[in-house]
Amino acid sequence: MSDVLEIVDLHAEIEGKEILKGINLRLEKGELHALMGPNGSGKSTLAHVIMGDKRYKITKGAIFFNGLDITNLNTDERSKLGLFLTFQNPIELSGVKLFTFLRTAYSVHFPNDNKTFQEFITFVQSKAKLLNMDTSLLSRNVNEGFSGGEKKKSEILQMALLKPKFAIVDEIDSGLDVDALEAVAKSLKETIYTEPKMGSLLITHYMRILKYLSPDKVHVLMNGKIVMSGDYGLALKIEEKGYEWIKEKN
Amino acid sequence: MDKREELKDIIPEKNYNGNFVTRARYPHVFEEGLSKSVVEEISEIKKEPEWMKRFRLRALEIFNSKPIPKWGPPLDLDFNKIRYYVLPDEVKARRWEDLPQEIRETYERLGLPEMEKKYLSGSVAVLDSEGVYANIKKQLQEKGVIYLDTDSALQKYPDLFKEYFMNIVPVGDNKFSALNGAVWSGGSFIYVPENVHVDLPLMTYFRMNLQSEGQFEHTIIIAEKNSSVSYIEGCTAPIYNTSSLHSAVVEVYVKENAKVRFTTVQNWSHDIYNLNTERARVEKNGKMEWVGGSLGSKVTMLYPSSYLVGEGASASHLTIALASENTWKDNGAKVLHLAPNTSSKVISKSISMKGGVSVYRGLIRIPKGAYNAKSHVQCDALILDENSKNFTYPHNEVYEETSTLTHEASAGKIGEEQLFYIMSRGLTEDQARSMIVLGFLDDVLKEIPLEFSLELNRLIKLQLERYGGTG
User: What is the mean pLDDT of residues A48-60?
Assistant: First the structure.
């Protein structure tokens, strides 16, 4: 069966305030969708709700993964099914080495893979090099003192190791200068396009990262709803005209 | 790469889960209660010299005259409901094979014989009140190193014993040191001659087996000039419903330019009062290192002390304490800078969970004249839920202007964001929490001998991975 991630009439709130007001979205195996929208439209909320962040309360609607209703599953169970979220602001884990973190996560996802310690080092290092990532980061605490670009690359490395079926990529372009953006976008492309191709939902404010990744579809989220969908041309139009014209249309 | 990560795969798990009972012979099990005749009988069974018997009786008087300390955790202890002497078997073996089968199996289950073979220079096993096993590598013995249970040391080396017994910890130091003076039994006695370095650690395993039992070991470590030794203690007991009492005295003598590391891994069951007095005297340029991982027990009071009496002496105190349900962990450190250019470092990490209470209680004293003394104290607490508590009572007394003392403290909870982040990588909530806790402890875990840092790692994981289940 082909993989499908489907979101149906999803409503979610935090501290009594409704953020998502009826989202519908269908992502199929290997598809790359971009989700754009102005600040505060609910993009990151959607990313967190798909991954099961308990700080948000789902008040209506459902999320399906290959037909299975995962609306009430724990975050770790969603991860094991094959969902992944790269964080906009990756969290620091004091005293936890990135290498240990990767190895633990990997062993949870692939319990039958019995790479030895040395084999795992080689494996991780080769992945890291493919992403042009400084391997000395592996022996540092997760995200502690990492630069913006290093944090984002570390997220992509995790994604590359865990090989999810669907990745939600939340504003991976935020806080990066032009050079770092290019490097991160290339790493991301490398990871998403490695066969079997991942399905991915790329959340962004800006056009610039989409130039590297050419999405199949582009959605615009405003005030908790997807108000417009289209092809790559829609992103180009937003780049040119901003979001005002869409607001006026709705 | 972190060495520990690699070793995790290689080193077999040892069993610190001591919840099982050894069926030993028990020729002497005292009735509950403490009196002059109990003390006399202990001394007679041990065939001690007269001076020791008199010493014990005087200690008993001091014990009776002192009130229960009220400044710390609640001690609802009935001293008449404790057995003060429990002899498991009249055996002093030097080879594991020579132990009665039931006793040998106990230690095999705890993994001691295998560890001795692989990682240790020698080991001693104390079961209930008596040492049942002691062995040290031959080449160390030839160099004059002594490693015995303390009773045997009194018999074999009476003069050496007398010189150091209850010296840095005077019998009247506190109510529990007096109790130990009266009914002490078992413990380790280590003597390292000048210029001798004991390369691998020595390890003593203390085990309490019966209910309502008291264990009052007395450990003495003497490191002569330019010598070094690392000593490790492990402690366990099975679970009963009545209170037991473990009240040890540890005396460490670090001579000029010598180095001693004292590591404790305690995993007591939840009915044990664990009230100890541990102290080191450190001479010129000597180094004392206290490393403690303290889990379990009902109440623990443990404040290892370093008296830095010689110029350039140093002490480091690293403590991890985990207080879970029905546990009060009162841990801390005491350092007296009694000479110039002395230095100390205290790092304490406390975790409170499931309603447990953890306390850091510390004293650093730098009197006038301790020129350029330096001290750094760091106490961090992690509180895992609303029902659990942590208190920090640091006392810093500095009277010397040229000295420096820095103090850092933090108290925190686990952030939901952190849990979500880790869980989004496939770890369960309990696994995520355990990862955060071990990260919090990393400053200390990385300082502990590898073997034991891994062991503590596992013990703590075990506690935390049951967190959701029984919380």
Answer: 97
Q: Which residues of A touch B418 (CB under 8 A)?
A: 91, 93
The predicted model gives B103-125 an average pLDDT of 81
Instruction: Please tell me the distance from the alpha carbon of residue B71 to that of residue A207, in angstroms, as a whole number.
Output: 66
CATH homologous superfamily of A4-249: P-loop containing nucleotide triphosphate hydrolases (3.40.50.300)
Lowest mean pLDDT among A21-25, A236-240, B203-207: B203-207
- A 156-185 residues with CB below 8 A of B? 158, 162
Average pLDDT over residues B260-266: 91
- Asked whether residue B373 falls in the same domain as residue B452, the answer is no
Residue B449: band (very low, low, confident or very high) from pLDDT cuts 50, 70, 90: confident
Residue B418 neighbours by CB under 8 Å, 6+ apart: A91, A93, B432, B436
- Domain with B460, as residue range(s), is 415-471
Is B377 part of a structural domain of the chain?
yes
Cβ of B426 and A103 within 8 Å?
Answer: no
| Residues B135 and B212 reside in one and the same domain | yes
B224 closest CA partner among B262, B261, B194? B194
pLDDT-derived band of residue B8, with 50, 70 and 90 as boundaries?
A: low
Check CB contact of B428 with chain A, cutoff 8 Å.
Answer: yes
CA dist B325 and B354 (Å) reads 5
Q: Total structural domains in chain B? A: 2
B9, part of any domain: no
Mutation test of the interface with chain B: which of A44, A75, A170, choosing the one with the most B Cβ atoms within 10 A? A75
